[in-house]
Specification:
single chain, about 400 residues, alpha+beta, 3-stranded antiparallel beta sheet, 11 helices, binds zinc ion
Amino acid sequence: MPKVTELGVTRDEVSDYLAKGKGTPLQRRIAELRLELSDIGTLRSNFVESLQGKQRIYPTILPTQASGRWSYIRPALSGFPKKCINPECPKGHHEKTYDCYDLSDCLVPDPNTFWIEHDLDAVEHFIFALRLHWKRRLDALKTGIDIHTPVTCNIFKLPMPTNFINPHASIEDEQWRRHVKWQGKNDTRRTMSKNFTYGQGQYCYVRVARKKEFVRKPYRVYRDIVYTPTVVYLIPNINSYLIANTETGELERPNYEQLAINFMETPEQGDIQRKKAEIMEQCRKDKVSRTLYGGPRYGWMSNQKTAKELFNHIIQGTVASYIDESAVLLDREFKRSYCAHNKHDSLKWAFFYQSTTKEGRLLEEQQVLERVKQITQRPLEYEGESIGITATYKIIRREI
Ligand SMILES: [Zn+2]
């Protein structure tokens, strides 16, 4: 299959053409189909063909990434797209149902084994809050307060609900939900706020301003912190986020940059970004940073890129070490078990069934799961503070 580049135009150019609304409806449709064809080609050559005719795969594992994460080649196991490919499903992003399946579903456990997969819940944010001694956020995370709804109200200038544990269903907030036309957990405004919290809030570059420093666009100074609200455009598919007008109900494209400003320019975020700026500056000067486990990463230059990368390492590297530690502990606890896939903040572990009956196997799965939960949800400690890491679990079986 020819790649888009062989036709003299790159993927980005076609995407850009579509994003800018160029061409006639027919030309646009052709451009869309061309992108789809190129997506299918990539899926086929990178993933489907790597499995063709194979009963079992033996990927090469490279635990050599700077963050300590593992990568896989032949095939690129961690790259298998999570996107639903069921042709019966609606096109594009949709709520996951039992009918959904993706390419990784063709990877199944060996006969007489089952896998337990677990994904750590918002672990990067937990580590961020822990490293910055963000007391209020740590308390919120511990008590199970929904951190994203108040942030959403701040960014979109909405009134606050009264129940912060479950504003999506609480009786006392019915009026509030109707007033702001709340769509529940998947409210687009809330999804955008999550993006701000996990993206811009954690990883964008900030620095302390010099005395009476004057900055030009796209930079802004809030209190004494210099930042760029235009990093909002790094959020994937940001242009697809449309917000319903609370009066007319019509979908509108918000001013993304203004939202980024609303996110950053609150007293609480100001304090946090100030602390982040200090740590980033330390990273830049020292040209080394360490995970909460002590694992170092070195930088070459003393610049903004180093500051960002080394700060990132503190978080990502800690996640990688936490998962690696889980793998070691699982290996010790279950003698006859093995790693099926170590993927950043999730782990698939394979266990052998002892029993041969269906009832026996189901019981065994539950017993193993309980033990796995105890092992993999350990509190993470840092400078006298501690936070419980939680995960979401799934049992994957071949047949029973
Ligand atoms: Zn689907």
